[in-house]
Amino acid sequence: MLRRNFIKLSAAGVASVMYSRLTYATVTGGSLISQPDEAWAQVAGQWIKLTGKGGSVFIHQDIRVEIKSGANSRAVYVHAPLSELQAVKLNWKYQTEKYSKILGDHWERSYGDLAWRAPDANVKKPWYALLYDGKQTACFGVKTGANTICYWQVKPGSIELTMDTQSGGVGVKLGERTLHAADIVTGISKLHESPYSALTNFCKVMCTNPRLPKQPVYGINDWYVVYGKNSFQTIKDQTAAMAEMVTSTVNRPFSVIDDGWQQPDDFSLVNDKFKDMHKTADEIKSHGMRPGLWTRPLIARRDDSKTLLAPKIPGRGQDDELILDPTVPENIARVKRNISLYKQWGYHMVKHDYSSWDIFGKWGMQMNDNFTTPGWKFHDQTKTNAEIINNLYGAIRESAGDMYLIGCNTFSHLSAGVFELNRIGDDTSGREWARTRKMGVNTLGFRLPQNNTFYAADGDCVGLTKYIPWAKNRQWMQLLAESGSPLFISAELDILDNEKKAAIKQAFTDAAGVQPNGEPLDWLTNQFPARWKLNNREVNFNWDI
To answer: Which long-range contacts (CB under 8 A, 24 or more apart) does 537-542 make?
Structure first.
């Protein structure tokens, strides 16, 4: 199958002690940082120190980096007409030694590895970094929608921001244009404000205009029941059975058809198991559910011209997988046609998958040293990888119209404000509870502050099957249903006794209504939070394997 199952500060005096050349604000408002102490540029694998000119401009030969102050951020602009620029790095002197715990994000989905950890100068913190000293949380980040892929590093006596400007696996050729690389934002929490509250508020600073669903999203997805061995009949049966447990008449659930409906290499053509996707959408609607559809935008056809294909890069896919080059306008036009087609078929939501893997040939968990294998390039080398991704996401958004979009394997910071939903973690499971615990519980615990601040944060499905103990799945379903995040269930129909049906009915009822975000109360010390605040009450879970 195309879809793999992978396994205000209280006093100014305190501020002066905490910060070196930094201005500050509460994380509920915008904030600025001072000009950097150093700026560097990477060309041909070598880091070159730039010379400061007046504090806000740094230059070396043709490379010019300028930092412009805004109302609540600092914008970074880069001009490099001759160089093939790989990255720009800014460094600030900062008293990091007092902080005992650091938290960052992930590039795209998370992989069960998010946690508050001791500072480590070698660890990259994608998009944002939170520093906690037991009393306050200092927040460093970039605004969503950046034109570079950004990460922070917390070093002894300094903090550093790197903005990756590569195009494919080589430096970008900007020519005469000036790149608006990123907008830097910082903030400091109130004294004794919880780090969870601080991060939630800081997400609102990083993303000032999220695109959110009109109502909470919930429903079913068939992947963890059939793993791609689906058909019109299986969708009909599952939708009809699960619709009986729906109570809301004002917020209808979704029935999402996952991988398995399409021809192997063409996501505009249906296979013989389904025959007619418009008819399938109508069937779902007849049961009071809203139809959703999975797709892989960048898969190429076997007969595509080589001029349309992305280069073969080590580690990406199988030998028979051909990937479209997202910098070729003809390919973007195809992506838009397919998304528009799904709308014509009557679907209300599209889940698009694999774009990060198809672009880079790596999963987020493999991007520690490089985002992709060095040395290869797209057809168009004049755009950064982030710009290429933004253009793809923008095309999908434009063609979708009012359909909801779920990004899966999409870069989180570039998805915010574009897609209504984002799959925030790697796959859970219908076969292994350990995987659901790792990818589901960890993901929700550390990325739920992004829920309804970046997008609706989808922690993935409840794989309600005979392979996973009901006692565990019942808790996972409750957490999703009561956390304010989307809820999707993949259920084997023949195991649904009265107890399970009653629990699903309650979960659907809870998920259909607007609820406050859940809060993990032990996330500072527990990588798989077990104590949660849900709807103003404490709930304790047992996730043990």
So the answer is: 539/478, 539/479, 539/482, 541/475, 541/479, 542/475
146, 180: one domain: yes
pTM value > 0.90: yes
- 102 assigned to some structural domain: yes
In whole angstroms, give the CA distance from residue 95 to residue 135: 15
* Partners of residue 91 on adjacent β-strands: 38, 160
For residue 414 the two structure tokens come to 């570039």
Helix (H) or strand (E) holding 235: helix 232-243
Instruction: Return the structure tokens found at 125.
Output: 């913190």
Residue 213 lies in a domain: no
pLDDT at 308: 98
Structural domain that includes position 293:
218-518
CATH assignment of the domain containing 233 = 3.20.20.70
Residue-level pLDDT at 21: 34
Amino acid 33: pLDDT? 63
Q: Is residue 181 helix, strand or coil?
A: strand
Distance of CA 56 to the CA centre of its chain: 32
Q: What whole-number distance in Å separates Cα of residue 336 and Cα of residue 346?
A: 16
Domain check: are 397 and 432 in the same one?
Answer: yes
Residues 374 and 288 in one domain: yes
Note the pLDDT tens digit of each residue in 232-248: 999 999 999 999 999 99
Q: Could you tell me where the beta strands, DSSP code E, fall in 370-455?
A: 404-407, 421-423
Q: Does 442 lie in the same domain as 395? A: yes
393 has a pLDDT exceeding 90: yes
Per DSSP bridges, beta strands 404-407 and 421-423 are parallel
- State how far the Cα of 291 lies from the Cα of 349, in Å rounded to an integer: 7
The answer to whether residues 45 and 171 belong to one domain is yes
